Amino acid sequence: MPLSFALPVKAKAVPAALLLLMGVWLLATRADARDAVRRAAPVLVPTIAAFLFWLANTLAHGISLKEFDVMSHILAFLLIAVSFSAPLRPIVLRIGFSASAAVLGLICIEQHYVEGIDRVYGVNNGLWGAIEFGMFILVLSLIATLQALRLELPRGERVLHGVFAILGVYGALLTQSRGPLLSCIPVFVLLVVIQARRTRRWRQAAGVLVAGAVAIGVATTAFHGEVAERFAAVSQEVSTYSEQDTTGAVRERLEMWRNAGMAVGEHPMTGVGLNQFGTYARTRIAEGKAADSIERYDHPHSEYLEWAVTGGLPGLALLLLMFGSTLWFFGRHAMHRDNGVAMPACAGLAVAGMYTLCGLTDNVFYRAMPHSLYFFLVLGLAVYVGRMLGQRATRKAR
Questions:
Q1: What residues does the O-antigen ligase-related domain cover (predicted)?
Q2: 238 and 262 share a domain?
């Protein structure tokens, strides 16, 4: 499923449909599935609220239901998530997710070294999708890294996860996406620290952190100096931004954020409507109140501002609730003594952490690819954790 989201194959709808039907069947026939869903409520309920909120927003603003298309997928993923309450083979999930990172990393390597594409972007979204694709690969690479750190797994499998993670991270580096690469660092450190605390192997954790820092430093300076140059350009663009100089990736973001703030001030409670930031910005451009450089953008390059602009302050509050409750749920169980609970919780924490941080400077939900990955993994892993907690509660009762 994660791999299919990043590939332009129409047949990918078939396994999604099968999992959806399986989820409906499990929910209707199995008490343990319903119990797993109840235990995952801190993650599921805010997601249901988001689905209903954006449906109401679309109808209230009289917007075409086509604008609700991507958000409507949430309903499908809520049902697909129930399939994670079935008896699954953990090794298949582990290797499947890690191998997906490797495959996508190899696609990036092929694009860069064979096709000669400077800033790779995958095969599903075109050049505009480079940022989301970089985040997508890093999410799967972090899950692979997590498995590589698990000392209870066979050494051969851990090495395999490590190789898959390296391929994924290197592929993400070739996208030259600053936001995802920066966001990955604190999430990676958090995962290593959690594992160190659980296993009491602090020396090994320090070695992993040092090795990771050296590898990234060498890759970004010795082999791909253009990545370092893109990071160096940030401060220069920020310091020179003005309403008269808005060209450049960072300056354009600042100009979009300025106009997004204006939109929130004008429509604080209702917003301008789902996916309507572009229309609002172009109206301001026509009035001479915004720079022409942002005319091509339909979203403000910040998920937080997106929800605030299009859904008003209630929309922003809902996004904060959705991210916050998800981080709380997975963070609460990440230190569990049982690996069967802690590892999927850590994986969920990695996904939610990446999207929470990347959302500061980019939109992470407006395209189907990153939207699908988030809700498939976060909702599914929440139900999976709920299932494992239910099994342990049953054993204790006996």
A1: 164-320
A2: yes
For residue 28, count CB atoms less than 10 angstroms from its CB and return exposed for 0-12, middle for 13-18, buried for 19 or more: exposed
**Of the residues 294, 329, 347, which one is the last residue of a structural domain?**
294
Domain co-membership, 161 together with 253:
no
Compute the average pLDDT of residues 307-334: 97
Do 74 and 47 contact (CB within 8 A), yes or no? yes
Separation of CA 28 from chain center: 30
Same domain, 221 and 312: no
In angstroms, rounded to a whole number, what is the distance separating the alpha carbons of residues 209 and 207?
5
Q: Is the pTM of this model over 0.85?
A: yes
What sign does the dihedral 217-221-227-230 (CA atoms) show? positive
| 133 and 250 belong to one structural domain | no
Bridge partners of residue 268, in order along the sequence: none
Residue with tokens 């199995």: 30
Q: How far apart are CA 56 and CA 385, in angstroms?
A: 31
**What is the rounded distance in angstroms from the CA atom of residue 126 to the CA atom of residue 129?**
6
Phi, psi of 245 (to 5 degrees): -130, 95
Maximum pairwise Cα distance, the chain: 72
Q: Is the same domain home to 100 and 214?
A: yes
Nearest alpha carbon to residue 340 among 282, 390, 292 = 390
Residue whose tokens read 């941080």: 357
CB atoms within 10 A of CB 242: 10
Residue 27 phi, psi (nearest 5) = -65, -35
Shared-domain flag, residues 74 and 97: no
Residues 238, 250 contacting (CB under 8 angstroms): yes
Non-local CB neighbours of 164 within 8 Å, separated by 6+ positions:
98, 99, 101, 102, 105, 141, 144
- Tell me the pLDDT tens digit for each residue of 58-73: 999 999 999 999 999 9
Question: What are the residues facing 245 on neighbouring strands?
Answer: 242
The CB-based long-range contact list for 275-284 (8 Å cut-off, 24+ gap) reads 275/63, 275/67, 275/299, 275/310, 275/366, 276/61, 276/63, 276/67, 276/310, 277/306, 277/309, 277/310, 280/309, 281/256, 284/259
Give 35-59 pLDDT, tens digit per residue: 999 999 999 999 999 999 999 999 9
